[in-house]
Structures are given as structure tokens and as C-alpha cells.
Write a structure and sequence with these properties.
Chain lengths: 108, 112
């Protein structure tokens, strides 16, 4: 299967700070998603971004498929951004492979 | 409000019990999935259904038995579970198999 590595594993930020989360993957993919898992366990879709750049409010993501990585940017972080961020990838007809996540804590 | 709804949210069961987890999707998707999330481990794919037909079974023990009566509903029947089966069970759906996935809130299962 595809190996997915996320970094950093843990991150603590002061409210208002910016951060970059990284997802590296070991094979070519044509599907990539970023999720935020809230404290109650639900995985919330952030971006479906197999390539290119997307922005949604304070969050943006960039995937460089040819170099096998994706970045998630969080600007002006808020305490509600706390949780675990997962990257998941797949290629055609194959299952999604998830990374082990980045655990983000935003302190007031 | 989520397009994928799981019930119950929490479940405590003994090793000799039989229980079922339910998942319902309101998104008109054709594929549905069960995942298991244990502490400090990546999500593990358990089962995949496409148009009510099972297309993947990832070497899951037979004490977990899925059922997909229609493309909107997915069940996971549980019997004689072990304490190590305690985990968060997540249901997801997608328009086609292994396309953009949407998850439910999960069922946190504790086996005692």
C-alpha cells in the first residue's frame, strides 16, 4: 500500500499563530483529502485536493502531486482548530491510506 | 448537520453480547465503508460496499459482520467481541468507490 507520513506529529500553538502541516506519500495518487477530527471523533472534510491549491477561510491547502506531498496551512489559529488533522490518499480503484495525523492544540 | 449519521454514538457491551452499529447516508452516494480507529494507529479499512455489494473485506475477524440492505444504509453486526476490539468505528460514504469520502460522527465502542 501507499505509505503516508504526516509531520509534525504534535503541535502546540498560541492562539493567533500560523502553522503548516505536511503530508508526504510514497506513490502517485489521484485522490487526496485533508480531514479535521474533532474532540468527539468526527472526521470533518477540509479539502479534496489531488493537485493544486485551494483556500477556505483561514485554511488553505496545496498538493504537489509530482513531488508527492501536500501542505495544509492554518492562519490566525483559534482554539476551535484544536484536534487531529489527517491526510488520506488513494490512486484509482484503490483504498484510501491514512497518515497517523498531526495533533494540534491551540492555547488561548 | 451531517450527511452521514451513525448510531449509537457510544456503546458498552460485554464479550458475550450481540449488538449492531447503524450508518445512514443522505448524500445519494453509491459506496459505503466501515473503518476502525484505535488509539495511536491510522484508520483501518474494514469493509467496502458499492451499490449494496461488498467489494472489499480487509481480513476482518468473523465476529464483525457487515450488512448493506440498500445504498443508504450500512450495518455492522457485532458478536463475541474481545476487549481489543474497543475502538472508534467510523462509517463513510462516497459517490463512487474510493472517491471523495464523507464520514459520520463515529461510534465509540467499549468491550468489557
Amino acid at each position: 500500500g501507499i505509505q503516508v507520513e504526516q509531520s509534525p506529529p504534535d503541535l502546540i500553538l498560541q492562539e493567533g499563530a500560523n502553522s503548516t502541516l505536511r503530508c508526504n506519500f510514497s506513490d502517485s495518487v489521484n485522490n487526496l483529502q485533508w480531514f479535521h477530527q474533532n474532540p468527539w471523533g468526527q472526521l470533518i472534510n477540509l479539502f479534496y485536493i489531488p493537485s493544486g491549491t485551494k483556500q477556505n477561510g483561514r485554511l488553505s491547502a496545496t498538493t504537489v502531486a509530482t513531488e508527492r506531498y501536500s501542505l495544509l496551512y492554518i492562519s490566525s489559529s483559534q482554539t476551535t482548530d484544536s484536534g487531529v488533522y489527517f491526510c488520506a490518499v488513494s490512486n484509482t480503484g484503490n483504498q484510501f491510506y491514512f497518515g497517523t495525523g498531526t495533533s494540534l492544540t491551540v492555547i488561548p | 448537520e451531517t450527511g452521514v449519521t451513525q448510531t449509537p454514538r457510544h456503546l458498552v457491551m460485554g464479550m458475550t453480547n450481540k449488538k449492531s452499529l447503524k450508518c445512514e447516508q443522505h448524500l445519494g452516494h453509491n459506496a459505503m465503508y466501515w473503518y476502525k480507529q484505535s488509539a495511536k494507529k491510522p484508520l483501518e479499512l474494514m469493509f467496502v460496499y458499492s451499490l449494496e455489494e461488498r467489494v472489499e473485506n480487509n481480513s476482518v475477524p468473523s465476529r464483525f459482520s457487515p450488512e448493506c440492505p440498500n445504498s443508504s444504509h450500512l450495518f455492522l453486526h457485532l458478536h463475541t467481541l474481545q476487549p481489543e476490539d474497543s475502538a472508534l468505528y467510523l462509517c463513510a460514504s462516497s459517490p463512487g468507490v474510493y472517491t471523495e469520502a464523507f464520514f459520520g460522527q463515529g461510534t465509540r465502542l467499549t468491550v468489557v
